Amino acid sequence: MTPGKNIPVITIDGPTASGKGTITRLLAQRLGWHILDSGALYRLVALAARKHSISLDDAESLQPLAAHLDVEFAVDKDSGEIVTLLEGEDVTQDLRAETCGNDASQVAQIPAVREALLARQRAFREAPGLVADGRDMGTVVFPDAVLKIFLTASTEERARRRYNQLKDKGLGVTMRGLLDEIAERDARDRERAASPLVAAEDAVQLDTSELTIDEVVDRLWSLCQVSLH
Ligand code: CDP
Question: How far apart are alpha carbons 106 and 99 in whole angstroms?
Answer without folding.
Answer: 11
